[in-house]
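Page 42, continued from yesterday. The earlier attempt failed because a stray header line got pasted into the input along with the sequence. Redoing it now with the clean sequence only.
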Amino acid sequence: MHTRTKLSLLWLTAGLVLPLALAAAEPGKSVSLFDGKTFKGWEGDTAKTFRIQDGAIVGGNLMDKVPRNEFLATTRQYTNFVLRLEFKLLGGPKANAGVQIRTQRIPNHHEVSGYQADMGDGWWGSLYDESRRNKVLAKADPQLTDKLVKRNEWNTYEIRCEGRRIRLAINGTQTVDYTEEDTKLPQFGIIAVQIHGGPPSEAWYRKITIEELP
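This time it went through. C-alpha cells are written below.
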C-alpha cells in the first residue's frame, strides 16, 4: 500500500524510462503469468522477501518484521487488460499488501510508482497511487468490503484496465470505478505484487492470469 516517503523526483526520473517490452499476447485470450513453481517472468527480492510455497507467491513471513515495502514484478509491461488472481493476507490488523498495475520501477530504489489495488483493513478494494501522488484515488465502501473479504482465506481480485478507466472487484463484486483525468500519466507498465513494510505478515498470491484487451 502507501509509502509516506516523498519520491516525486525519483518518479519523474522513472517516468522518462521508455517501456522495454510491452507484452503482446493475443487479445481476448487469458494466459497465466505465474506457473506455480518458478519465478520465470518475474523479478524482485527472491532471496529474502518472496518465496514460492504451495503453488503460490508468498511475500514476508509471520516471524519477522517486514523491514520495508517490497515488490515482485513482471518483466514485461501491459496496457489494456483484465488481471485475475487469488490472494490472502495473513498477520495482525496492520498487515497490508497490494497489486500494482500500470507501474514503473523507480531506478536504484526498492519502491515502484503507479496504481495499486489495495489490500488490508481499511484499504480493501481501494485504488491507491503508490509513490507518485501518494493518495487514495478511489475509496471502496468499507461496509461493503467488510462483507466481501474472507479474512485469512483465499479471495479473488479482478482488475480491469481499459483506456484511462480502472475497475476493481473483490470476490466478484465491484469495489471502485476510476477514470484517470491526468492525461500526462502513463497508462502502461509492469504488474507487481507487494508485501508492505511493517509487523510480521504474509501476502499470498496464486492463479495469476491476464487477458489483454484491444
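Notes: The CA atoms of residues 57 and 205 lie 5 Å apart.
Reminder to self: strip header lines before submitting.
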